[in-house]
UniProtKB/TrEMBL annotation:
<comment type="subunit">
    <text>NDH-1 is composed of 14 different subunits. Subunits NuoB, C, D, E, F, and G constitute the peripheral sector of the complex.</text>
</comment>
<feature type="domain" description="NADH:ubiquinone oxidoreductase 30kDa subunit">
    <location>
        <begin position="85"/>
        <end position="204"/>
    </location>
</feature>
<dbReference type="InterPro" id="IPR037232">
    <property type="entry name" value="NADH_quin_OxRdtase_su_C/D-like"/>
</dbReference>
<dbReference type="GO" id="GO:0048038">
    <property type="term" value="F:quinone binding"/>
</dbReference>
<keyword id="KW-0520">NAD</keyword>
<dbReference type="GO" id="GO:0005886">
    <property type="term" value="C:plasma membrane"/>
</dbReference>
<dbReference type="GO" id="GO:0050136">
    <property type="term" value="F:NADH dehydrogenase (quinone) (non-electrogenic) activity"/>
</dbReference>
<dbReference type="InterPro" id="IPR001268">
    <property type="entry name" value="NADH_UbQ_OxRdtase_30kDa_su"/>
</dbReference>
<dbReference type="InterPro" id="IPR010218">
    <property type="entry name" value="NADH_DH_suC"/>
</dbReference>
<keyword id="KW-1003">Cell membrane</keyword>
<keyword id="KW-1278">Translocase</keyword>
<keyword id="KW-0874">Quinone</keyword>
<dbReference type="GO" id="GO:0008137">
    <property type="term" value="F:NADH dehydrogenase (ubiquinone) activity"/>
</dbReference>
<keyword id="KW-0813">Transport</keyword>
<keyword id="KW-0472">Membrane</keyword>
<comment type="function">
    <text>NDH-1 shuttles electrons from NADH, via FMN and iron-sulfur (Fe-S) centers, to quinones in the respiratory chain. The immediate electron acceptor for the enzyme in this species is believed to be a menaquinone. Couples the redox reaction to proton translocation (for every two electrons transferred, four hydrogen ions are translocated across the cytoplasmic membrane), and thus conserves the redox energy in a proton gradient.</text>
</comment>
<protein>
    <recommendedName>
        <fullName>NADH-quinone oxidoreductase subunit C</fullName>
        <ecNumber>7.1.1.-</ecNumber>
    </recommendedName>
</protein>
Amino acid sequence: MTDAPDQTGPEVIGTRRGMFGVRGSGDTSGYGRLVREVALPGSSPRPYGGYFDDVVDTLAAALGPDDFGAAIERVVVFRDELTLEVHRDHLVAVAQALRDELRFELCLGVSGVHYPDDTGRELHAVYPLMSITHNRRIRVEACAPDADPHVPSLYSVYPTTDWHERETYDFFGIIFDGHPALTRIEMPDDWVGHPQRKDYPLGGIPVEYHGAKIPPPDERRAYN
């Protein structure tokens, strides 16, 4: 049995201004005086509950204590879901062990996340995995800094990540090293920037054929 890191509590990584769905405020635009901390859940203590302990223990046995300690940065159980935060240098080895030793045969995709204030970990690649054999689901997450946005591709372990990694590269700018053809999949090849990053401008793109310009949402006139 390998213990997870100590419980650290939520990690506040920034402040978000302007949120849709906030109650108790007359500001329904999503912008203005709405302020909310951006917090990520910290490491979880044992027991994790359910099959989560068995997954972590089997993975630790498959990797060995030294490699497990170097690979797994945090074990997080949040809202009854298990996330293994993996150092990017060990991502492929962890994925292969999860596939071969724990029978997580299916990778359901790749989701990119951009936290501009999470210094040194601004870009996150999240892989939801499913074990068809055992009817289990977990998530694997790896991070990279803006200055070095490289994460190893899982194409060699899960070929179904082919198009998903291309989409995450297209929208977030994460470079998946080892991918067989890492090109844009939805935006034009000559498009500048990655549209789902938090630092990408909202609106302000000229309307084709009409010469009009849509201003960013935070610059539009408010009527309240």
